[in-house]
């Protein structure tokens, strides 16, 4: 089984805030001690950190749930609970993080050590020392900790390489990579010898260096899921220059020019922006019979069918076996890289705005629906947060929650919907009777 994994779906849960405490100061010789319950601690965040030592998402194959610790509860003597430590999750360079529900890109992690908070911990609940007022100097009210953010994420690894080798199976991409770098890809006389992307570093005679990725062979229909193409086409998205490797010997009976058109069509079908990347045509296997004649015909067809105002791509005849033309090809590639800027993978419309962990002012504070059993059901982020942070073990806290509902207009809204005295109202798993 391949140890390379480039996609994963995981669940992350930040820590809840610690509950606030209800406590009172009771000491000898201290009259009217008053409230003394401290606040809860902050829940831990879930943070992704780029680790350049990782090359795959294999760690997420067996471990798909990541949960940070909750904050410590508040204590007596007004002491705050300790905040929980953040949960650090290491990911490889080139990892794109999406929200599984919305599909929006949260972040694109490409630099070693780069950090991103994917789920924020809840704040600690307030202790009763926070609720003391002249009217109520000894409140028996405290808050539960705020729930930590919970979300499902899609991770997608797109390898970091300056140059991508593309072409039909068995055109010599793996052999070329093994000759120009120290990489040791699997090489065989059959299709799809390469089933995972292989990376290697090239150093030219002039001292310049760049990373090259050998991608699994594409075939016609790859962008629609034929062969392995749809699985690995994503890895070419980060490359700045494409080396289009073509078997000029036509050893498998295909027309080299038709191969060239077919691969470009697949790249365009997968992502129109891939065609913005400059291409160098690598005419491989020039040591084979008929290769020179095929190259001549290829150039004629390319010139005849190319836009007269467009610049023809460079063509470099090489032989990976005899190392013919390799130095010239690598120098030209390095020169093209120097003048080719990086391509942004995502525009603003694809990226989720800076995460906001409060409430949307325009969103309704609550929604009312009715179950089949005639129970009124209240929902909504703001209302559910108030509910989760209410300590129902204390009568004063329950009364405070009732006042908050009334202030939000819940009573009037239920009455307008036809709720009558004694009807059941449900929030989550909690039920109470509506009192008109």
Blueprint (SSEs and pairs):
Elements: E1 7-13, E2 46-50, H1 59-62, E3 65-67, E4 87-91, E5 95-99, E6 105-109, E7 115-119, E8 150-157, E9 163-166, H2 173-180, E10 198-203, E11 209-214, H3 229-232, E12 241-247, H4 256-270, E13 279-284, H5 291-305, E14 314-317, H6 326-338, E15 367-370, E16 376-379, H7 381-388, H8 395-408, H9 410-416, E17 424-427, E18 430-433
Strand order of the largest sheet: 10-11-9-12-13-14
Low-pLDDT regions: 188-194
**Overall SS class:** alpha/beta
Strand and helix order: EEHEEEEEEEHEEHEHEHEHEEHHHEE
Extended strand count? 18
The largest β sheet comes out as:
6 strands, mixed
Helix content: 10-25%
Shape: elongated
Kindly report how far apart the N and C termini lie.
66 Å
Tally of helical runs: 9
Radius of gyration, in angstroms, nearest whole number? 31 Å
Strand content: 15-25%
On the 0 to 100 scale, the average pLDDT is 87
Structure description:
This protein has 436 residues and is an alpha/beta fold. It is 20% helix and 21% strand. It is built from nine helices and 18 strands. The protein has helices spanning 59-62, 173-180, 229-232, 256-270, 291-305, 326-338, 381-388, 395-408, 410-416; strands spanning 7-13, 46-50, 65-67, 87-91, 95-99, 105-109, 115-119, 150-157, 163-166, 198-203, 209-214, 241-247, 279-284, 314-317, 367-370, 376-379, 424-427, 430-433. The strands form four sheets. Strands 10-11-9-12-13-14 form a six-stranded mixed beta sheet, with helices on both faces. A hairpin with a 5-residue loop joins strand 5 (95-99) and strand 6 (105-109). The radius of gyration is 31 Å and the shape is elongated.
